[in-house]
Amino acid sequence: MGKVLALAGNPNVGKSTVFNALTGLKQHTGNWPGKTVSNARGTCDYNGRQYELVDLPGCYSLMAHSEEEEIARDYICFAHPDVVIAVCDATCLERNLNLVLQIIEAAEQVIVCVNLMDEAAKKQIHIDIKGLSKELGVPVIGITAREEIGLERIFLTLQQMEKQKSHKLLAFVYEGPVERAIGMLEPAVEWATKGEENTRWFCARLLDANSNLLDSMEEYLGYSLVEDAEVAGALKEAVEYLAQAGYSKEKISDAIAASYIRRAEQISRKTVQYGKKDYDRKDRRLDWIFTSKKTGFPIMFLMLLLVFWITICGANYPSQLLSDGLFWGKINWYWRCGRPASRR
Ligand SMILES: Nc1nc2c(ncn2[C@@H]2O[C@H](COP(=O)(O)OP(=O)(O)OP(=O)(O)O)[C@@H](O)[C@H]2O)c(=O)[nH]1
Ligand SMILES: [Mg+2]
């Protein structure tokens, strides 16, 4: 069997479009998020080599909140695909980088595909692909999946990666106290997992204490890391140290989440340029109108009224039109061909 390539990314960024273009299959695509709800598999050949592609459901973070996100997270973190292809939307790269950073931290090998380059060009958004690759420490490719532009470069990059011996990804760096707490945990986790796992990632997740992720971790390892005596002791010390440094339990996971957001912001500032300064003025204005307290609540109330009106009497108008149309259609049909011959 060939290499397994997993397509991961935020919802609605074109993962299934890439999957369909490469495999010739027809995964459901459409312009709204959450279409792919389970892993779809297909194969493709390039230069005599076979690859197995896995189209994952979209997710915003590896700290999953929904069933689909859990499916994607567990696959990326525990199924060991040979390469994760992280698909991003070029028109809102900063938001997408949050997940990309988490994927790079968790996976063994990653290629980042910045999709919708056509839309970015229309909005005069310029992305420094080389600079992005340098910042992330992984290969980055600009693609327009809908036109099948740039897809071949995925395979060329895969072949280049095969030639390189070492695939060590850049380590993601958290803020000082979290880093020190990870350092306190590392020896115990390394020992418990016999050095066979991504120790730093496991340590950060133990500090993060997302119960859902810890359950998946236990299922994957076949034992509970937090119940290992050495790990439990080190974890207690690390959490106490963080508490002294002013990090309550909730603040630890907030600090971890904030680290990804800050880094995504830094990278985006360095690598994305906007030709039009007010490229998203319309979106921001609509955002403000619909989400501010002053206007948001009245708009929501009016919309609820509209829904009530449609449910109670508004729907009668189209149904009346339909019934009139059918009634006249029936009479016409009767006069043209339905009358008994004697009366014609
Ligand atoms: N303009 C443009 N649109 C694209 C491109 N790639 C995909 N799309 C469109 O983006 C929308 C979403 O594509 P999908 O492939 O369904 O996205 P997805 O990431 O699989 O979405 P989920 O399964 O919901 O996570 C569709 O309307 C595609 O036609 C592209 O390169 N350019
Ligand atoms: Mg999809």
UniProtKB/TrEMBL annotation:
Question: Which GO CC annotations does the UniProt entry carry?
Answer: plasma membrane
| Molecular functions per Gene Ontology | ferrous iron transmembrane transporter activity; GTP binding
Provide the transmembrane region boundaries: 295-317
- Database matches in PROSITE patterns: G_FEOB (PS51711)
Q: Record keywords: Transmembrane helix included?
A: yes
- The residues covered by the FeoB-type G domain are 2-164
Q: What are the entry keywords?
A: Membrane, Transmembrane, Transmembrane helix
Could you identify this protein by its name?
Fe(2+) transporter FeoB
UniProt lists the gene as feoB_4
